[in-house]
Design goal:
With 539 residues, the protein is an all-beta fold. Helices cover 1% and strands 53% of the residues. The strands form twelve sheets. A five-stranded antiparallel β-sheet has the order 5-16-15-14-13, with no helix packed on it. Strand 43 (504-517) and strand 44 (520-533) form a beta hairpin.
């Protein structure tokens, strides 16, 4: 096991070993901070918003050029904030072994602005080669979370930033980095309500490209309570290494990590999952001597098939994974539960034949999959959670110039970003599309007596119903389902509902919450615990 130096006095938990860091410094908000063991004081520098206009050259079929760099631009990733603004990050090549990460945004898809520019030459031991960015929007805290790597840096290879969700008015960004082993290559990010996750690959444990997963909180990049913050996958239960092409997402119940795993027999698509429940994540419960809900080494894992270039998206209690198998874009979709073992029941469909480079976005039962075929960008929509697909729509306006390399496109609810060669080098373009108005119900704060139902979609949910069912070893009172009609739920509206009868019983108990509407499918949430008369303890 390698020692891992972590900034700002983190305590690391690698399996059952706790390693204290040698230096502790106060965190100064909205600063770039690094800590070097060989100096007495940390170096700090504000990273200010630059507010540069981007070329924003609109083309014939709703394509907009959003990178104005004379070099090549790679690996675009995007998200959407609660104002509907599109936010894009990508690798911007500025020289040999030199690339920066711009953060650009648009309020309408046509006019784009560069709000921040990250360059690791300004970071401790940084080499000026920033790669493989990923960005996610966190709705509960109105925050953007950006991850990226400097693969050649001696320390602080994995770098992260918190940016205000209102990107147009964000004045400063907090930039941070951690140290690990050597040879970082890939990076992805996701979040729960209050925890921010960075997933990287690194050479460690004598293995090539193992998964490393960090958990952080805003604004100090501290680990969540009772957690070590940073975990490495030693491959003792599931061979995930060598891992590449990382992608992450979540739905109301589960976190999802998908990636390629290379074998002599071929490249397999792997998936690891974890709960979204922060109480369980920070419970400290153990499995095989490791943190059950923290360490990726023991998280539920499986191979989805032989293939390349995976992507994942979740919504409500559903998830879709797309990847390329035998030159076909394949979709696997399933319902999920809120328990640790997700119990996937995969439905398999072919999105397109003789195609590559898929990206997927899911909202309710609607799935949007973009891909490349014969040098052109296409979009297909499924209205039944990925089982069947509508006709393809071409989304680029210059024939045959869309790049089909792995990771060269991305999609979210506000549009598609893709890499294009029409100008003689790799440039990033944006294409918008219309999503189908969709209510999406989610359940939170489930207990034996109550739960909260929220509509996180973009359409009204009509005639919403709910139920709470209690099943266990010995339920004396209150175990039957309870439900009623609560009328409509507007987008972003939530309501707390509950049982009126007291629950009495003993032993292991499972609580299942359900919510559904006339125009929204049923979603389920489960918690398991021990009922001692009328006291309930989470397992």
């Amino acid at each position: 096991m390698k020692n891992i130096s972590l900034m700002l006095g983190f305590v690391l938990l690698l399996h059952s070993s706790i390693l204290p860091f040698v230096s502790t410094y106060e965190v100064s908000s909205n600063n770039i901070i690094y800590v070097d063991d060989n100096i007495d004081d940390p170096w700090q520098q504000n990273i200010k918003a630059i507010k540069n206009d981007v070329m924003g050259q609109q083309c014939l079929v709703d394509n907009t050029l959003i990178s104005n760099n004379i070099g090549n631009d790679f690996h675009p990733r995007m998200t959407t904030n609660n104002l509907g603004h599109s936010i894009v990050v990508f690798e911007q090549e500025i020289g040999l072994n030199r690339s920066q990460i711009p953060v650009v945004y648009s309020t309408n898809g046509y006019l784009w602005n560069e709000q921040f520019l990250f360059d690791s030459i300004n970071f401790s031991s940084g080499t000026g080669l920033l790669q493989y960015p990923d960005i996610v929007y966190n709705y509960p805290n109105d925050l953007l979370y950006l991850t990226m790597i400097d693969p050649n840096a001696e320390i602080y290879n994995n770098e992260m930033s918190f940016i205000s969700g209102d990107i147009a008015n964000a004045a400063e960004a907090l930039w941070y980095g951690i140290s690990g082993g050597t040879d970082y290559f890939y990076c992805a990010c996701a979040c729960t309500n209050n925890f921010f996750l960075s997933l990287t690959t690194e050479d460690t444990y004598g293995l090539l490209q193992t998964l490393n997963l960090g958990y952080y909180t805003y604004p100090d990049f501290e680990p969540p309570p009772v957690m070590g913050g940073f975990y490495s996958d030693g491959n003792s239960f599931f061979q995930s290494a060598p891992a590449s092409q990382l992608e992450m997402d979540s739905n109301a119940n589960q976190l999802f990590f998908v990636f390629e795993t290379d074998f002599d027999s071929g490249t397999k698509i792997s998936i690891k999952t974890n709960v979204m429940n922060e109480r369980l994540i920070t419970s400290g419960r153990q499995k095989n001597g490791m943190e059950k809900y923290g360490d990726p080494e023991v998280m539920p894992s499986e191979y989805l098939g032989i293939g390349t270039d995976p992507d994942v998206s979740g919504s409500g209690n559903k998830v879709c994974v797309v990847y390329v198998e035998d030159e076909n874009v394949i979709c696997k979709s399933s319902n999920t539960s809120a328990v640790y073992e997700p119990g996937f029941n995969w439905q398999v469909s072919t999105v397109e034949s003789n195609a590559s480079t898929p990206a997927v976005y899911m909202q309710g039962n609607n799935v949007y999959c973009s891909y490349v075929k014969k040098g052109n960008l296409y979009l297909k929509i499924s209205e039944d959670a990925g089982v069947t697909w509508n006709e393809a729509m071409r989304k680029n306006d210059v024939n045959g110039t869309v790049v089909s390399k792995k990771g060269s496109i991305d999609i979210c609810e506000s549009g598609i970003v893709f890499t294009d060669l029409r100008n003689g080098n790799y440039d990033i373009y944006f294409s918008s599309y219309e999503t189908i108005p969709t209510p999406v119900l989610v359940i939170s704060d489930l207990s034996p007596m109550k739960m909260t139902v929220k509509n996180i979609g973009n359409d009204v949910a009509y005639n919403v119903s709910w139920s709470i069912t209690i099943d266990g070893d010995f339920i004396i009172l209150g175990g039957q389902s309870s439900g009623l009609i609560i009328g409509t739920l507007e987008p972003d509206q939530e309501i707390t509902v509950g049982k009126t009868r007291l629950i009495l019983g003993f032993g292991h108990t499972e609580i299942t919450g359900a919510a559904w509407a006339d125009n929204a499918p049923k979603v389920l949430a489960d918690i398991r615990g021990i009922l001692l008369l009328f006291f309930f303890y989470l397992e």
